Amino acid sequence: MDLRTVTANRVEFSYLEAGPPDGPLALCLHGFPDTAQTWRHLFPSLAGAGYHAVAPWMRGYAPTALPAESHYQTGALAVDACSLHEALGGTDEAVIIGHDWGAHATFGAAGLEPDRWRRVVALALPPLSALATSFFSYTQIRRSFYIFFFQSPLAETAVSMNGYAFLDHLWADWSPGYDADWDVAQVKAALGDSEHLAAAIGYYRAMFDPALHDPRYQIAQDAANGSPPQPTLYLHGEDDGCLGIDAVGNVLPYLAEGSEQVTVSGAGHFLHLEKPDGVNAEIMEFLGR
């Protein structure tokens, strides 16, 4: 994988790249707390199939530059994705793949400018409409404590204490049994100063505070709260400790015709790292249709 930079939506993005530059774009978006390196197992499959695989560090994650306007609402992430498509020379054969926050951004980009994306793949977070009231069960609220804690001004202090041990614990809770030491080290490098950590937490603060939204992104924000119009593959780990499979249920009624849903057994929240062979096979089979 090669490391490159490109400017899109007024942000200089650092990204990993593999495969032929003139192949169809496969834009891969990571979530929290994660980095572009999360797609290292999928990249060889994408490149081998002729895709121009690109995985940026999302806005706020070093080495991508901090955005001047400091907006982290999902609409901004969706516009980033569409702008990356433009800057990287994507065509209507492009596909978009997202995990966690990257999935939320994926839904927004796919709905905002659907002609850019042929197919959609989302992991570990379905369209918000699919969650309905299940997100507010006691069990899921307990899993989601961090979302509410991140609204506190104490969040940055707590996360950064003891060598950012908070992040180690999140990965351990969300993907039980997975050795995440290498992955978490990459995250700590990306969020290892106060500005970048505040940016990553800012995604969560923007969820609840409209004052943190830029009205220029409102149309994209609305798109992110909907479902993608393209055929979509949705994958979720059976043992996900972040968003429980019990809270997800049947996602297909909220997806376009031709969509598929797969539950990956023996995997948690970072299913593409825990079960890469099976997840890669599902993704590549779906993209080939």
Please report the number of helical segments: 13
Q: Output the helix-strand order.
A: EEEHEHEHEHHHHHHHEHEHH
Provide the spatial order of strands within the biggest beta sheet.
1-2-4-3-5-6-7-8
Any guess at the CATH architecture? 3-Layer(aba) Sandwich
Mean pLDDT, rounded to whole units?
A: 96
Full CATH superfamily name: Alpha/Beta hydrolase fold, catalytic domain
CATH C-level class is Alpha Beta
**What is the first-to-last residue Cα distance?**
26 Å
Q: Hey, roughly how much beta strand do the residues contain?
A: 15-25%
Gross geometry: globular
Question: Please, could you describe this protein's structure?
Answer:
By secondary structure, this protein is of the alpha/beta class. It has one domain: Alpha/Beta hydrolase fold, catalytic domain (Rossmann fold), CATH 3.40.50. The protein is 41% helix and 17% strand. It has an 8-stranded mixed β-sheet with strand order 1-2-4-3-5-6-7-8, sandwiched between helices. α3 packs across α10 (218-224) and α7 runs antiparallel to α8. The longest helix has 20 residues, at 155-174. The relative contact order is 0.17. The model has no long low-confidence stretch (mean pLDDT 96).
What can be said about this structure in brief?
With 289 residues, this protein is α/β, with parallel strands linked by helices.
What secondary-structure arrangement, pairings included, does this model have?
Layout: E1 2-8, E2 11-18, E3 25-29, H1 43-48, E4 52-56, H2 74-87, E5 94-99, H3 101-112, E6 117-123, H4 128-131, H5 138-143, H6 145-149, H7 155-174, H8 181-190, H9 194-208, H10 218-224, E7 232-237, H11 245-248, E8 260-264, H12 271-274, H13 276-287
Parallel strand pairs: 3-4, 3-5, 5-6, 6-7, 7-8
Antiparallel strand pairs: 1-2, 2-4
